[in-house]
Amino acid sequence: MSYRRYVALGDSQTEGLGDHDDAGGHRGWADRLAEHLARVDPGVRYANLAVRGRLAAQVRDEQLPAALELRPDLATVMAGMNDLIRPGFDAAEVAAALEETFAALTAAGARVVSVTFPDLGAITPLARPLVPRVLDLNARIEKAAARHGVTLIDTFPLAFVTDARMWSSDRLHASPVGHARFAAAFAHALGLPGWDDAWMTPLPALPAPAAWRAVAAEARWLATFGGPWLGRRLRGRSSGDARTAKRPLLMPVVEGPSG
User: Fold this and answer.
1) Please, are residues 162 and 118 in contact by the beta-carbon 8 Å criterion?
2) DSSP assignment letter at 167
3) N or C, fewer C-beta in 10 Å, the chain?
4) pLDDT tens-digit series, residues 122-153
């Protein structure tokens, strides 16, 4: 099956942070998926409404109405991580916002694809206390997806998803390798020609770092990324303040660089 109107909703992952393009912007897995769709049907048009820092309720309240106006036959939804890492996280509220988004899009006739979240503790040891939150939210997302016929890509059981090479240096956004893998996962989930489960193949093994290097890496990450992130939270700021969607209208897909 081919799709003619693809709309992506979400936060920084869908916006494409961690995957820079040649124009100084961000490419990302959704752009890459749109390119895969265009190889099947060059007439496909694509809009990306995602904005970094957005919470699941903001995606529902701000992006969903715009998405419905575009009348997509395919929509992807990736949101909830910004909720999950904040104090006061409420899995039921986040899942409800996602379910309302799923329900509205599927009721409008769109094929919807979404994801569960990976094991954050395996990506960043300092995030291990958040793993119960991840499991709770994932279980709720699975039930919501089942109720509305949403295709769900389950990343939590896949050990390779937590490989450091899948993530940029901030450990919050996928690397170009990670974005390419996620685009392939969505293409496979949609049954696009030429895509199979090869995206699930583990990356080649690397030798374990010395203990002192691992400790130094954690300290460096905390100083470079963890501290500034916490500072923004304490000031009530978001990386997405004053930002708007990079691609608010449905437009033809232009092929990006290979890789």
Assistant:
1) yes
2) B
3) C
4) 888 878 899 999 999 999 999 999 999 999 99
Q: What are phi and psi of 48, to 5 degrees?
A: -125, 110
| Contact (CB, 8 A) for 164 and 202 | no
Please state the φ and ψ torsions of residue 123, each to the nearest 5 degrees: -85, -45
Tell me the per-residue pLDDT of 28-40, one tens digit each, with 9 for 90 and over.
999 999 999 999 9
Q: What are the structure tokens assigned to 143, written together?
A: 């039930």
| 203, 189 Cβ separation under 8 angstroms | no
Contacts of 213 (CB under 8 A, 6+ apart): none
Q: What is the DSSP string of 187-210?
A: HHHTT-TT--GGGGSPPPP-PPPP
Please, are residues 32 and 258 in contact by the beta-carbon 8 Å criterion? Answer: no
> pLDDT per residue over 92-110, tens digit each?
999 999 999 999 999 999 9
Query: Residue 77's closest CA among 16, 14, 9, 152?
Result: 9
- Give how far the C-alpha of residue 118 lies from the chain's centroid of Cα atoms, to the nearest Å: 11
User: What does the pLDDT read at residue 43?
Assistant: 96
- C-alpha closest to that of 51 among 246, 253, 251: 246
pTM: 0.87
Give SS3 for 115. Answer: strand
Structural tokens at position 161? 């998803």
Cα distance between residue 5 and residue 122, in whole Å: 36
How far is the C-alpha of 55 from the C-alpha of 65, rounded, in Å?
Answer: 15
